[in-house]
Amino acid sequence: MSLDACTEAVRQQDPDRFGAVLVAAADQRPALVTLYALNLEIARAPFQSAEPMLAEMRLQWWIDRLAEMGRGTAPPLHDVLTPLWQEWGRGAGELAGLAEARRRDCTREPLAGVEAVVSHVDATAGALMWTAAQRLGAPAAARGVIADHALGAGLAAWLRALPQLQAMGLGLAEPQPQIPLRLAGLARESLRRAARSSRAVPRSAAAALYPGPRVPRFLSEIERGNIDCLTATPEITPFQRRASLARLALTGRWWR
Predict the structure, then answer these.
(1) Taking a C-beta distance cutoff of 8 angstroms, is the pair 83, 34 a contact?
(2) What is the spatial distance between Cα 44 and Cα 65, in angstroms, rounded to a whole number?
(3) Where do the domains of the chain lie?
(4) 1 pLDDT exceeds 90?
(5) How do residues 14-38 score in pLDDT, each as one tens digit?
(6) CA–CA separation, 66 vs 231, rounded Å?
(7) CA atoms within 13 A on the CB side of 186
(8) Which of 36, 72, 53 is nearest to 208 (CA)?
(9) Longest C-alpha distance within the chain, in Å?
(10) Does 256 score more than 90 pLDDT?
(11) Helix (H) or strand (E) holding 18
């Protein structure tokens, strides 16, 4: 897969992050595109087999290749790993944690309550956002702010996907209505904390911190009882997506 093909994969399969990539400085876009293309591949790996052992073997292949890259060994020619190596070099080894966090997907293991969901979101969406933000110039001192923002945005994305996750066996072990309500409240408070400290994050990192369209509204509607995340969540329209990304591009504001 060339860089162009990675870009197309992200455009089709992760349109919110793709739109945010276009806000980043031109010389940083290839790094973000390859990172997000990798994220798509490792998220898909556990579902390439219904047999847990085979699924884990597929995921382990990615972990092993990333570890080798971290030791300075170039990967074999590969659709994603080759352009990733060109952009990240030995730094690709640090991305193995993103794949490690997907092991539970291999066994279709649901999450047991609020704390488990928070831990999972931190290890997946949180780690991904921090990696991208660092690449765009976010300092170590901003890590707490970005962690708060990533948790809020990641919980919102997880709640939006919850009906599909439940069907796949990856949602809540005990799908009680109060759990999405608590998660929505945690997400809103995390986003508020990050917004209060937004000055700690340079504008150059805005593209990495884009939370997606209509996140505060979505969380508010859950808390008001207008959305039952266990059954269905509202779709994002193309207009809503374009308007949200236009705001990011014009203002650089990743917070609400």
Answers:
(1) yes
(2) 16
(3) 1-108, 110-256
(4) no
(5) 999 999 999 999 999 999 999 999 9
(6) 37
(7) 22
(8) 36
(9) 52
(10) no
(11) helix 15-21
Give the C-alpha separation, 233 to 226, whole Å.
Answer: 10
What is the pLDDT averaged over residues 70-84?
94
The answer to whether 160 touches 218, Cβ cutoff 8 Å, is yes
Identity of the residue numbered 17:
R
Contact 142, 171 (CB under 8 A): no
Contact 185, 223 (CB under 8 A): yes
Span 200-219, mean pLDDT?
96
pTM of model > 0.90 = yes
Average pLDDT on 236-254 reads: 94
pLDDT tens by residue, 86-124: 999 999 999 999 999 999 999 999 999 999 999 999 999
Helix (H) or strand (E) holding 251: helix 238-251
Taking the CA atoms of 107, 97, 15 and 139 in sequence, report the sign of the dihedral they define.
positive
Collapsed DSSP state (helix, strand, coil) of residue 107: coil
Average pLDDT over residues 134-162: 98
Q: What whole-number distance in Å separates Cα of residue 150 and Cα of residue 127? A: 8
**Contact in structure between 166 and 173 (CB atoms under 8 Å):** no
57: buried, middle or exposed (CB in 10 Å: 19+, 13-18, 0-12)? middle
Q: State the DSSP string of 169-231.
A: T-SBSS--THHHHHHHHHHHHHHHHHHHTGGGS-GGGGGGG---TTHHHHHHHHHTTS--TTT
